[in-house]
Structures are given as structure tokens and as C-alpha cells.
């Protein structure tokens, strides 16, 4: 009976979770096809890298649409612990197999799926929009501290050394890095961490729950999801992540994405508040 309470969902939510899982598999297949295409391209360029990056991130944004239709369900702490353990175990298990490009792509899809579910769960606890201010400050300070003197500085050097000279097993941190396809690469390349995607989803769901349209390409994401219209959803938080990745790639430096995401979201909400006050 206790296990049933962890695994049962309403019929509508169950259908949406199946849809979400299937869409992530399709995203994995699309990334793998881009990898095969990139492997055939003889020329590498910053522009082409940017096109590949934008295509994969924009496709990932469309994966959020089913989440916007999930109905809230009262869940216990044990429910989140149970599914956190299941998803973490699945990520760890995939990491134990011999590394292949397809397996790395599958692992990236699983990381996106896990990050989406975690971000959606965390967004439920934001009752007022002003609560985003301490969230943004905390994530910025924590990420900067980790990047400058903490574990992120060590992990980034380990990842850099491994992909420059890929001998031996990858470092453990590689397990939670989302990898994307780029022209001329021998495999998919780590681009951002699961924590970055969690916050992208978190800000998108918070906007949705507070009836705020954060879609830069038109109607609210929920309306697009109900109309089954894909290819028109670009939340502000994803644009912030894209900007952070492009900045890191063009500068050649390992830069933390979370502070830039937090800054963009605070500026966007601030400008939106000023505009609303002006026209009210």
C-alpha cells in the first residue's frame, strides 16, 4: 500500500509523464542525428557551433510544454525521496556502461528529464514572486563560491583534462553534465550541468504558476501546450542559459551559468514590474 502511494498518479498526469518521457527519447534521437551530421561536416566554425547549440536547446525548451499541464497533487516527503533515489540510480547505472555516443546522449536526455521533474517540484514552494530574490541571491553566491574556491573549480579542471586527453574512465562529475552535439566533435560534448537545467525549469514553472507569460515568442506556454503547438516556446530562463553558454564558448573560459540566469531573471521581473506599474 505504501509503495502504491509512491507510484500512483492521476490518469491525466500519468499520460503527461509518459508523453514527457517519450519526447525526451525523441530529443535524444535528434541530438544523435545531429552528431552524425556534424561528423560529416568537414568545416568547424563558431557560427556553425552556435547553430547546433541553438537547435538543441530550443528543442529542449519544447520538452517543457507537457510539464505546464501537470495537475498539482499532494505528495509526501517520502514520495520525493523515492523518485529521487530511482532517478539518481538510473543516472548512475547508465554511467557504469562503456562510454558510447548514443549512451551519452541517452544519459543527457535522462538528466534533462530528471532536472525537469526536480525543477517543477521545487517551483511548487514559491508562493510569492518576491521569494525569487533570496533564491537568486543564494544560488549566485553558492555558485560563485563553488566556482572560485570550491568543488566546481576542481571538477572543471578534471573535465577539461579528460576531454583533452580521454584516457581512462571519465571523472564522476561527468555523470551529471548534459552533453550536446557539435560539428567535428568525436562525440557529444559536455555543455552544462543538471543544476542549470533545474533552475531553467524552476523559473519557467514559477512564471506559469503565477500566470506570467515568460514566452518570448508569443502566447503562454500552457496555451501552446493545450493547442499542441510546438516550436513557439522560448522561456526567458532558457535564453539566459543560452547566453551563459555562448559567453563561455566565445571567451574560452569555464563560467558558471547560474549567476547569469539569476541576474537575467531578476532584471526581467524588475522591468516587467515597472512596465505593469506604468500602464496600470
Automatic annotation (TrEMBL):
- Keyword Membrane appears in the UniProt entry: yes
Q: Which domain of life is it from?
A: Bacteria
Residues crossing the lipid bilayer are 16-38, 50-71, 78-95, 101-123, 135-156, 176-209, 230-247, 253-271
Q: Which UniProt keywords apply?
A: Membrane, Transmembrane, Transmembrane helix
Question: Is this entry keyworded Membrane?
Answer: yes
Name the UniProt record assigns to this protein:
Uncharacterized protein
Organism of this sequence: Malonomonas rubra DSM 5091
Amino acid at each position: 500500500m505504501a509503495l502504491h502511494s509512491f507510484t500512483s498518479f492521476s490518469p491525466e498526469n500519468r499520460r503527461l509523464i509518459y508523453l514527457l518521457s517519450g519526447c525526451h527519447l525523441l530529443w535524444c534521437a535528434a541530438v544523435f542525428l545531429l552528431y552524425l551530421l556534424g561528423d560529416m561536416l568537414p568545416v568547424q566554425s563558431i557560427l556553425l557551433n552556435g547553430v547546433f547549440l541553438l537547435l538543441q536547446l530550443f528543442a529542449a525548451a519544447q520538452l517543457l510544454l507537457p510539464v505546464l499541464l501537470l495537475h498539482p497533487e499532494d505528495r509526501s516527503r517520502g514520495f520525493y525521496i523515492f523518485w529521487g533515489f530511482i532517478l539518481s540510480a538510473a543516472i548512475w547505472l547508465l554511467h557504469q556502461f562503456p562510454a558510447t555516443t548514443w549512451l551519452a546522449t541517452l544519459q543527457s536526455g535522462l538528466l534533462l528529464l530528471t532536472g525537469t521533474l526536480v525543477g517543477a517540484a521545487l517551483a511548487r514552494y514559491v508562493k510569492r514572486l518576491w521569494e525569487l530574490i533570496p533564491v537568486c541571491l543564494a544560488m549566485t553566491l553558492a555558485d560563485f563560491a563553488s566556482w572560485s574556491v570550491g568543488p566546481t573549480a576542481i571538477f572543471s579542471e578534471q573535465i577539461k583534462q579528460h576531454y583533452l586527453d580521454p584516457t581512462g574512465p571519465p571523472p564522476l562529475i561527468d555523470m551529471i553534465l548534459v552533453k550536446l552535439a557539435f560539428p567535428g566533435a568525436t562525440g557529444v560534448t559536455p555543455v552544462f550541468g543538471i543544476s542549470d537545467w533545474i533552475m531553467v525549469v524552476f523559473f519557467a514553472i514559477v512564471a506559469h504558476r503565477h500566470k506570467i507569460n515568460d514566452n518570448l515568442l508569443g502566447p503562454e506556454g500552457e496555451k501552446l501546450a493545450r493547442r499542441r503547438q510546438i516550436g513557439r516556446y522560448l522561456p526567458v530562463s532558457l535564453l539566459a542559459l543560452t547566453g551563459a553558454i555562448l559567453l563561455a564558448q566565445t571567451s574560452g573560459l569555464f563560467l558558471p551559468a547560474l549567476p547569469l540566469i539569476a541576474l537575467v531573471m531578476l532584471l526581467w521581473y524588475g522591468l516587467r514590474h515597472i512596465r505593469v506599474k506604468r500602464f496600470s
